[in-house]
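Note to self: keep these together.
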Amino acid sequence: MAACSNGCAEYVPSAKLRAMVLHFLVRGRVQGVGFRWFVQREAALLGLRGWVRNTEEGDVEVVAAGEAEELDSLRSALRRGPRGSRVDNLIEHFLEDAEGEQLSAFRIEGAW
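Structure:
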């Protein structure tokens, strides 16, 4: 809360509540171990929008949009991974807000 010039309290949103869009690349033993389904479940529980998919190089790619706190929780889940996985490296990039405007409910891309 911030004080107004007339003494009232004005709500100022915290930076933690600001929506953002992140791109993750997860490297390690992350294909063939249910990693995409794990990510989809975690992201959906957190109320995030976006997608997860395998890459041809053997990594898992994630784009997620939401509040900073939920994205922090997803980041922790990505580092942990499902049973049977091994995360060697997690690369993260911030994307422009416009990238998240067309994202819908979190989904798995490229699943058959």
